[in-house]
Amino acid sequence: MGIAYWATLTGAETIMISQPLTQLLIGQQGQITEITSKGEKRLASLSGFGLVPGSVVTLLQRRLAYLIRVGETEIALEGNIAAEILVTVMEPQGDIPV
Amino acid sequence: MTCHISEVDQEIPRGDAVILVGNPNVGKSVIFSHLTGRYVEVSNFPGTTVEVTRGRMSVDGNTWPVIDTPGANSLIPRSEDERVTRDILLRECPRAVVQVADAKNLRRALLLTTQIVEMGLPLVLVLNMRDEAQIRGIAIDAAALARRLGIEVIQTTAVRGEGLDVLPEAIERARISHWQASYDGIIGEAAEEIKALLLPNVPYARALALMTLASDDLPPGIPSGSEEQIAAIRVRTAARYSIPLVYALNQQRLHCADCLIEGAVHQSQSMGRPLADWIGRMATHPIWGWPLLGIVLLALYEFVGVLGAGVLVNAIESTVFGQWINPWITHWIDVLLPIPLVRDLLVGEYGLVTMALTYGLAIVLPIVTTFFIAFSLLEDSGYLPRLAVMVNRPFQAMGLNGKAVLPMVLGLGCDTMATMTTRILETRKERLLVTLLLALGVPCSAQLGVILGMVSFISPTALAVWAGLVAGVMLAVGWVASKILPGETSDFIVEMPPIRAPRLDNIVFKTLARLEWYLKEVLPLFLLGTAILFVLDVTGALMLIERVAAPLIEELLGLPREATAAFLIGFLRRDYGAAGLFALARQGMMTTTQMTVSLVVITLFIPCIANFLMIVKEYGWKTAAWVTGFVVPLAFGVGGALNAAIRALGLAF
Ligand SMILES: Nc1nc2c(ncn2[C@@H]2O[C@H](COP(=O)(O)OP(=O)(O)OP(=O)(O)O)[C@@H](O)[C@H]2O)c(=O)[nH]1
Ligand SMILES: [Mg+2]
Question: To test ligand 1's pocket by mutation, which of B31, B32, B48, B85 has the most ligand atoms within 8 angstroms of CB?
């Protein structure tokens, strides 16, 4: 995968570390650093929705399926796909508890 | 109308057509209706339109054809409906393209804009859903965008008709954008190389070059002979990247889009939509999603089963037909045409009035009307695609994923239309599986309504047996078929549209459009079916058939002999067969056990003729014959097994 990642959910250093989207807290935002999928179709679908490195996503739900928001688009995806999307946690905005 | 290319791409002689394109669910069809005055289906989920629709608009005394297309996130198609859109763009030489964008998702829209601009087509950009963008605090400087793109940019709220008045003139003045996405050296060079191969006589050379780089699914218009060279360039270029080319292309396009938007989109505090967002959360909630689904189904039952199939059918059948129309017509026929044969044809046991029109107008019409209203409300609310999340797991057992829930649920409206909606699925295996399951076990509106109506005669246990058995058979067949059919399942990546309050005008138009369809297409079949029954009856063939079918109907299924006629007309349409059973049940000619068995059989019964023809159209005769040949014996087999089980166990409902 090339990037070492783990979930450290507090502290300033998290901002620099990429972790899978699945590790975000509900309501937390992350900026995509890399999508590690290999499949051409999968990457075409994801990028077609605007999911590319640099995009900011919010995690909305994780059970049954991962539900994320990018821009004003909500997308449901399977856990194994969500795990291939690596993000850095963005500074919590306002009152979202970390 | 043929496209000729001179030295420059830009000088393609234009046809007349105006093509509407855009991401899914952004309001293309609303705008199409507005331009042409022709109603087309509008619903709140991606994939409402799955084939091109044509209409006409007039501007300043000219009339131009207008084409509505299925939504597409990209012109590199991943599903059949996106392919339809790409192909129509490449085949027509439109006078103008109108790209409809969702103003609150401008970035995604521009990904498509880059590809339309690469084709060198005159373009108007419509930023629709302005109301929703405003609520979310998004303001777009359309003038700045227009300047940067070099084309007209219009802001609209299509459902309220706001901003659309200037669209026709803008279409008349449509220009080619001077904005081009720029690519890195590797892609740029490869594109130029392919373009050089195509150029002397192929239109859209640059766009085609980029499409062929992005996917090995070659678009139409590539001259035969050059495929191999193109493939070689593609392979060579791909080898220079660590990521697939299509992904690299989209990244670079989105980057250009970000630069274009820079400073032209202003985000302020969102006013929020607490209720809609809350409903959306609940609809996919791992716990609360289920009770919510229960409430939706209960409401559907109350509205369609109790109100439609109960109250309204009683009023119309017993009163309007039973007391007024049928006696009145019988009376006048006796007076005017006292010929027994004519009398029987019109008002006999298999009479066109007493059977076809009574079933069609008194039983099925009230049921489908209530169903269409309820279903339109569901479609427009944005609830249906959320079911994809709830059922993803069980669908995976059938070699599908949650995305397939949409065509399956639409099958409850009409299996024929739903068969066409399988185009939104990405692999042929998934499309075939859903087509089979639709033909096998998804009852269409009229049939479902009749079934809901019959439920009031039988117990909840019987309903549970019926639902469990049909669902179980579908799961089992899906599971087995997914093991047999070659191919793969696509990724589960589905867009959830926003929850919206359904609009009364759309509910009314959509319901009326569907009722018109019902009256035009279905009623004639009811008349035909009845006429056939009548002929069989007077010639004595019906008795023969009943006797021949006796082992099947009476012994295997344990049903009364009269049910044979219901199954016979069921070959024409399942719902007509169901209506026949409903009539028998209302006359007290079936026990609850018999009703349950007959319901299971008619639900799993053969797809209607229209559905059969749609399968032929989408997949060919062989597939259609396979599906039918499989479904009919299975329906009787399951019904027979149920009958035997009930008897052996001494159950009663
Ligand atoms: N609030 C709001 N809703 C809109 C507007 N325009 C369209 N809609 C709604 O958006 C939904 C989709 O509209 P359609 O016209 O079916 O969209 P489409 O682009 O044809 O969709 P597909 O055929 O699925 O690609 C419907 O529920 C419309 O009522 C708008 O300006 N404002
Ligand atoms: Mg549409």
Answer: B48
Cβ-defined contact of A47 to B254 (cutoff 8 Å): yes
- Name the packing angle between helices B340-347 and B523-538 (round to 10°): 140
Cβ–Cβ < 8 Å for B152, B146: yes
Q: How far is it, in rounded angstroms, from Cα B476 to Cα B119? A: 47
Q: Which residue has the tokens 């975000």?
A: A24
pLDDT confidence bin for B2, thresholds 50/70/90: very low
Determine, for residues B281 and A60 on separate chains, whether the beta-carbon distance falls below 8 Å.
yes
Q: Are A31 and A88 in contact (CB under 8 A)?
A: yes
Ligand nearest to the CA of B71: 1
CA angle at residue B26 from B23 to B32, to 5 degrees?
A: 105
pLDDT band at B358; cut points 50, 70, 90: confident
CA atoms within 13 A of residue B382's CA, in its CB half-sphere: 21
CA–CA gap between residue B159 and residue B129 (Å, rounded): 8
pLDDT digits (tens, 9 = 90+) for B452-504: 778 777 878 888 889 999 999 999 999 999 999 999 889 999 999 999 999 99
pLDDT at B493: 96
Residue B607: per-residue pLDDT: 81
Cβ-based neighbour number of residue B263 at 10 Å: 10
Give the C-alpha separation, B599 to B575, whole Å: 11
Using an 8 Å Cβ cutoff, are B55 and B35 in contact? Answer: yes
Burial B118-150 (b: 16+ CB within 10 A, else e): bbbbbbbbbbbbbbbbbebebbbebebbbebbe
Confidence of residue B11 (pLDDT cuts 50, 70, 90): low
Helix pair B621-649, B592-604: axis angle to 10 deg = 160
User: What are the C-alpha distances in Å from B504 to residues A13, B277, B376, B501, B508?
Assistant: 53, 21, 10, 9, 6
Rounded to the nearest integer, the mean pLDDT of chain B is 90
Ligand nearest to the CA of B126: 1
Pick the CATH number of B1-272 from 3.40.50.300, 1.10.287.3510, 3.40.190.10, 2.40.160.10: 3.40.50.300
CB B266 within 8 A of CB B139: yes
Q: Which of B73, B108, B401 is facing A71, going by the closest CB pair?
A: B108
Q: How confident is the model at residue B337 (pLDDT cuts 50, 70, 90)?
A: confident
Residues in chain B: 653
Q: Which residue of B has its CA nearest to A36?
A: B243
Q: Is B218 exposed, middle or buried (0-12, 13-18, 19+ CB in 10 A)?
A: middle
Neighbours of B640 (CB within 10 A): 17
Span A29-73, pLDDT tens digits: 999 999 999 899 999 999 999 999 999 999 999 999 999 999 999
The confidence score (pLDDT) of residue A4 equals: 38
A47 touches chain B (CB under 8 A): yes
Is the complex ipTM more than 0.90?
Answer: no
Structure-token match 């059989």, residue found:
B601
- Ligand 1 centroid to Cα of residue B441, in Å, is 30
Q: Which domains does chain A have, with CATH numbers?
A: 20-89 (2.30.30.90)
Q: Provide the residue count of chain A.
A: 98
The boundaries of every CATH 3.40.50.300 domain in chain B are: 1-272
CA distance A36 to B84: 30
Summarize pLDDT for B550-591 with one digit per residue, the tens: 888 999 999 999 899 899 888 888 888 888 898 898 888 888
CB B158 within 8 A of CB B27: yes
Average pLDDT over all residues of chain A: 83
pLDDT in tens, A6-41: 444 444 444 468 999 999 999 999 999 999 998 999
